[in-house]
Amino acid sequence: MAKGKNIVFVHPDLGIGGAERLVVDAAVGLQNLGHHVTIYTSHCDPAHCFDECRDGTLNVVVRGNTIFPPSILGRFSILCAILRQLHLTFSLLLTDTTVTPTIDYFFVDQLSVCIPLLRYFLPDTRILFYCHFPDKLLASRKSIVKSLYRIPFDWVEGFTTGLADGIVVNSKFTAGVFKDAFPRINVVPRVVYPCVDVHENEKSQQKLEGDKYPFLQGSDRKIVLSINRFERKKNVGLAVEAFAQLKEKERKQARLIVAGGYDNRIAENVEYHAELEKLCDSLGLRHATCRNYISSLTIPSDIDVLFLPSVPSTLKRFLLRTAGILAYTPENEHFGIVPLEAMLAGTPVLATNTGGPLETVLDNGVTGWLRPSKPSEWSEILRTALFSLTDAERAALAQRARERVTDNFSKESMAAAIQKEYDTLDGVKRRDVGVLDIMMPTAVGTAVVIGVLVGIGRTDWGVLSGVLGGVVYASFAGLSIAAKKRRK
């Protein structure tokens, strides 16, 4: 693959989660290989994104955020996400007419609904879809109505994903799940591991300023660190319960810091933070939340659990370098980038013996430990990592951890793997995508929604859905004709 290719990324919400970290690293890695990279997204808040998205490292274009909201009264988030991506895609096709003819490859992730549109209007451009995890398996189905509601979206996901020229996943674990979730997709997904910047440690050895994070100053407590988004599926309560099972004298020498992605717009973030605070109360653990410098001035020194929502990158790196152990709590995590960041910093990792960590963390103290989600077993490992390892043992573990990340999960290796995938796509034969491939998801989705609503006795909603579906269908047809003419 020659240098100087024009590669466009299409990503829904460029926040600070693991998927966003992968997208940013992939974009920077390809850019460093000499390619021209642009990220199109429906949302990118300069106050809530990675540094590369706001400091000029990457060209980020925000489109598709003026018509549809992220959710409606806290609901219908998947529907709104799809509509926002369609709006983004048509904005790209209709507005950036000087850009679209020069695009060589697309990198699409999370939402696949734009794929048939891109293939129809840009038939010479190859599309690689990166599946972090099938969305149909992430959605909750707590009621029959919710299960029925998800049917058209699950079908659309499978149909549109199957139209990608190539599909890659983030781990062997996800590859197995993908094949089970989409048995009709003939494309065999290959694994391209996420990465970390292995040079980050060298570039960020700055010392912690004495007046910057006062709650960390003057304390010799050993740190148990948890870094995850404030979501229930991240199972952070496991770390809280394990910490609570340490002996009282051990807890007085340690502190659990729970840091990670937090967005006030997302109800679950707010609710789960409150649930974790209540869990601390029930276990007799003193806790506090630091949201900014001002609130940090009021945090007592004897706090057991400290919550740090949306920590800046410099503080995150400092915590990873100084923590006694990283407690990575999610079960069946698709991959998990934070364990790699911890190992790169030389910090041992404790993770559940499921999902992605099985492919990254070497067990029994080699680079960390893998254990079932039992607080008693986790508490024993915390005790070992904090109080039993000698300085020599810790130094040897840190060396092994850094070497594993550097040898297997560098940004350069991920970018080279993606570039190789594009080389493969150039020789892949594919069928043409027609108008029906574009309109079918809309028609099927609308028909199923109408049937579900009428079936549960909400005929009025069914009629309304039919009208809205017709409007959307007609709008797509009109936009399709306009985009096709514009392209000619």
Largest sheet: 7 strands, parallel
Structural class: alpha/beta
Distance between the termini: 28 Å
CATH superfamily of the largest domain: Glycogen Phosphorylase B
CATH level 3 topology of the largest domain: Rossmann fold
Write down the Rg.
Answer: 24 Å
What's the CATH first level of the largest domain?
A: Alpha Beta
β-strand number: 14
Provide the helix percentage.
40-55%
Shape: globular
Q: Spans with pLDDT under 50 lasting ≥5 residues? A: 206-211, 452-456
Q: What is the count of DSSP helices, taking H or I runs of 4+ residues?
A: 20
Strand order of the largest sheet: 3-2-1-4-5-6-7
Percent strand: 5-15%
What is the residue-mean pLDDT, rounded to a whole number?
A: 85
CATH architecture type of the largest domain: 3-Layer(aba) Sandwich
Question: How many structurally independent domains?
Answer: 2
Question: Secondary-structure blueprint of this entry?
Answer:
Blueprint: E1 6-13, H1 18-32, E2 36-43, H2 51-54, E3 59-62, H3 77-95, E4 105-109, H4 115-121, E5 126-131, H5 135-138, H6 144-161, E6 166-169, H7 172-181, E7 190-191, H8 200-203, E8 222-227, H9 237-244, H10 248-251, E9 254-260, H11 267-282, E10 287-289, H12 293-296, E11 305-309, H13 313-322, E12 325-328, H14 338-344, E13 349-352, H15 357-360, E14 368-371, H16 375-388, H17 391-408, H18 411-425, H19 435-455, H20 459-487
Parallel strand pairs: 1-2, 1-4, 2-3, 4-5, 5-6, 6-7, 8-9, 8-12, 9-11, 10-11, 12-13, 13-14
Helix pairs in contact: 1-18, 6-19, 9-16, 14-17, 19-20
